[in-house]
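A further point concerns the way the authors explain their paired sequence and structure data. Since the whole study asks how a given chain folds, the encoding of that fold should be made plain. A single example would do more here than another paragraph of explanation. An entry of this sort, consisting of the sequence and the corresponding backbone structure tokens, reads as follows:

_____
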Amino acid sequence: QVQLVESGGGLVQAGGSLRLSCAASGRTFSNYDMGWYRQAPGKEREFVAVVNWSSGNTYYAASVKDRFTISRDSAKNTVYLQMNSLKPEDTAIYYCKRGPGWGQGTQVTVSS
């Protein structure tokens, strides 16, 4: 079983930046992709970004491309999401995902 712990959320003004972290612990020997999803109030959870653990290749949702950057530190079993030029519509709970597992989520609030 793998545990995923997110951190780094908070309140920021529009145009600002935040960096989220997600650390995986436990049975991490499988090279699952790791990614980020988000869920805004009243909306379904949506894909944000993913990184292939072996190759480092990344893929982004159109709404965040060129503003967000996903990266990984294999030695630390940690994935990061650097979020720049934040917009109020980025406000959501951000969840880390690895294989079938989910983190508990971290709140990101962007004020206008």
